Amino acid sequence: MTTMKILFVADQLKFGGGERHTVALATGLVRRGHQVALGYLKDSAELAPDLHQGGVAPLLCCHAKDGFDYAAMGRLAALVDQFEPDVMIGTSQYSLMCAAIAGLRARKRPKLVFINHSMGVVKRGGKQRLRFVVYRQFYRMAQCTIYISELQRGFFKALGVSDARSEVVHNGVDLNHFAVARVADQAAAMRREHGFGEHELVIGLCAIFREEKRQVDLLAALARLRAQGVAARVVLVGDGSMRPQIEACIDALGLRDAVLLAGFQQDVRPYIAMCDVMALTSHDENFPIATLEYMALGKPLVASDVGGMREQVEHGVNGLLYPAGDVDALVAALSRFSDEALCAQLGQGALATVRARFDAERMLDRYEAIFQAVAGKLARVGLA
Q1: What is the torsional sign of CA 303, 241, 11, 2?
Q2: Which of 124, 303, 305, 361 fits a 20 to 30 Å CA distance from 379?
Q3: pLDDT tens across 69-86, in order?
């Protein structure tokens, strides 16, 4: 293996799916012997300790203000000159633009790769769509664009985005870290602590409290399940701007004793492990990592049929899909998990799927090969 110098550029280091993916990728490449640095544009550094611990260095905040910040571009260009990467990775539209401009300003221009995590930047309309008109010009500057689902690649192709080269690399999860044996005792103790009965159906959802995550759909479904006589409870892990509306919904539906608001948790594993089934109720997703974590812990999944979820979930094999926003269908799917045998069967299917297709090491293999090919470190490489 030929070692590389790799520079990641991120918007910020907050707790989010894209940011966690960047940390896993950067630290994983360090473990494989590569030199990895990271520049983050805005002053949000919650995940910086994970990068330091994982050997990513240097780690630089560019202190960017909103929009185009000439001084921040200069700081990033100085990092490029200092580190002299073989390949530079933009992890969002904004960071791609900044990486491309910094590369042009640097003494030695590195090869550029874009990891595209989102479709929402186009779907949300208004200012986001106007920004996309600008950002898409920088897509063409990347030697390779990496999408995280086939559906996403097709979505951008239909918009007329022309990539010099494109690949699809599905997200992966650390199967050793997300092993149920690591947290089984803690999860059992938490279940007893919160008074969850042995035969109660405990449904979990881990997500930031934002409108598109639609925790309120799950609450509406819970109220209907309980009205039908199903002994069900919900665990919501997360926090965010929608918390007041979610708490109001809980009170309006009379669910205060049936919902555990666990708040933000840096380690979600025991909360997932104490649930019987996990839910994804989002109206907008691409290829979420959280659902892979559920599956790695052997939990069956009820998921809205959005984004690339069909590339994760095979209906009736490792989980159940339902039309996003259809609370009746969500109730029908969740009610099936009163059957403990079905829970076990789909949970085993979920674990088998993750082991076969979504192991983090498999993901790292693909990224490493692509980066080496783009950097010209390999004469020929098979990327399939």
Answers
A1: negative
A2: 361
A3: 889 999 999 999 999 999
